[in-house]
Amino acid sequence: MVHLSRWKIILLALSLALGLLFSYGNALSPAQREALPGWLPKPTLNLGLDLQGGSYLLLQVDVDAMREKRIANLSEDARQTLSEAQIAVGGIVRDGNGVVVTLTNPAQMDPAVTEMRNLLGGGASGLASDRTITRQGDNRIRYAFTDAAMTAMGPTAVDQSIEVVRRRIDSLGTREPSITRQGAERIVVQAPGESDPTQLERVIGQTAQLTFQMVDVDNSVQEAMAGAVPPDAELLMGEDGTPYLVKRRVIVSGENLVNANVTTDQSNRPAIGFRFDGQGARRFGDTTAANIGRPFAIILDGKVISAPVINSAITGGSGIIEGTFTIASASELVNLLNGGSLPAPLTVEERRSVTASLGADAVRAGQLATMIAFIGVLVFMVLSYGLLFGGISVVALLMNGILIIAAMSMTGATLTLPGIAGLILTLAMAVDANVLIYERMRDEANAGRSPIAAMDAGFNRAMVTIVDANLTTILAALIMFWFGAGPVRGFAWTLSIGVVTSVFTAVLVTQVLLVFWLRLRRPKSLPIAS
Questions:
Q1: Cα–Cα dist 185/134, whole Å
Q2: What separation, in Å, do the N-terminal and C-terminal C-alpha atoms of the chain show?
């Protein structure tokens, strides 16, 4: 042991240098960090919702509404396909996971089935494997989703909603939001630093489903308002309260949207520019070319934003949406459109906000608790093993704290109030390895072995126990991190980092410092022998 490997000294020095490099930013103010050279790393700890304040939302994904909409889309697909093939439809009714189409003329059964089987080639509703088409008697065709497809819609909708919500929150500039699934159909959103939960809820909750549909000019809006709505149309209201009768068939939807941006119209008023992908541009160009002189509706979340008349074919795949926008409302809508539309409506089941002052109180309480824990460990180690051995443990503990802060800053981890509890627990557990090593040294020295032999046995024979004890702890932390959510994961992550760094510092730092002391003093006995 006296012949300490050079690589251990190099590893220790390198670890200390990297620890200081990636943790020093936490001791500086934002202005001081900005004044540093650009090549220097400036990572800092991200404080959680409970430490810096922010907003908390518990959202319910309305999967049932999404399933109903998908089934309604089946009805419109079947109606439009058969209409284009000039096959008369007597009626379309809902039936379980799909719809049943009744033909007016049974002789058209074979061509109708052939036309509808073309729908299984793709489309917005999915792949061919998720839908089925079956004959029912001489004049009925059932077009439906499979049971597996209906079951898969729930998890898929939640996953897509989480990603959309994340993009929308990022557009607000909120730092390190926590967005996690809770149960089967719920989403927990924690946005530290977001002081306006109303704006957060408005941005998150808006479905932002943009569609372009033709206005029905062949039927009367007044008759539709009286209840006589054609089966292939729907009655929608404009932002100014004007009623519109529009075709149910969607020409282009937000799924084909490549980009949206804030621009101005011919009167220099705020407007929204848009650009479609190749498929959307072709469909939009074909439809506008075939309907010159007729109006089409631009619809957002079931409300008509505008209904301009098509003066010429729009083949470039881009255009602008005019309306009664302000710069703020246009910017918010652009963020929503670029973030994507939600696959299903979201309802807020719980909302909470934590003020910045309450978060500051939690930070001060956490700092005080950490300081008390550190002083308690320092006093215990000095009283138990003397100033030399106890002081070396404290030095290892200080380096352990630096490495924990550096690791959390470098990985972008979020420090929460339970995370501070995990940090305090790590401080207490960090000296366990030193206690095991020192007690083994004491037993060996009391048995008459030399200081060198006692120290060598203390490190070698205690190592198995140290690894075993910390391995079980880190396994428990990994289980909490995998199955937990929110504060539980913060506690588990801090504890996991602390376990790794505490074993490293307690063994390596203690070993290096004791070897230097041994070479310098060459003692006849260990101070902790008695």
A1: 32
A2: 22
* pTM, two decimal places: 0.56
Q: How far is residue 92 from each of residues 71, 82, 142, 229, 463, measured CA to CA in Å?
A: 12, 12, 10, 15, 74
Alpha carbons 120 and 114: distance in angstroms, whole number: 11
Tokens standing for 166? 């994340």
Distance (Å, whole) CA 405 – CA 416: 13
Spatial distance between the Cα atoms of 368 and 94, rounded to a whole number of angstroms:
64
Q: What are phi and psi of 193, to 5 degrees?
A: 85, -10
CA nearest to 399, candidates 490, 516, 508, 496: 508
What span, in angstroms and rounded, lies between the C-alpha atoms of 72 and 78? 10
User: Does residue 276 contact residue 252 with C-beta atoms inside 8 Å?
Assistant: yes
The string of DSSP codes covering 51-107 is: HH-EEEEEEEE-HHHHHHHHHHHHHHHHHHHHHHTT--EEEEEEETTEEEEEES-GG
Per-residue pLDDT tens digits of the chain, which is 530 residues long: 455 678 888 888 898 898 888 888 888 877 787 787 877 777 777 777 777 777 888 888 988 888 888 888 888 888 878 888 888 888 889 888 899 999 999 899 999 998 888 877 644 343 456 888 999 988 999 999 988 888 888 888 888 888 888 877 776 665 567 788 888 888 888 877 666 667 777 777 666 778 889 999 889 999 889 888 888 889 999 878 889 999 888 888 877 788 888 888 888 888 888 888 887 888 888 888 888 988 988 888 788 888 888 888 888 788 887 777 788 878 877 877 777 777 788 888 888 777 766 667 777 887 888 888 888 888 988 888 888 888 898 898 889 888 988 888 887 777 777 778 877 877 777 788 888 888 888 888 888 888 888 888 888 888 888 888 888 888 988 888 887 766 677 778 888 888 888 888 888 888 888 888 888 888 888 887 66
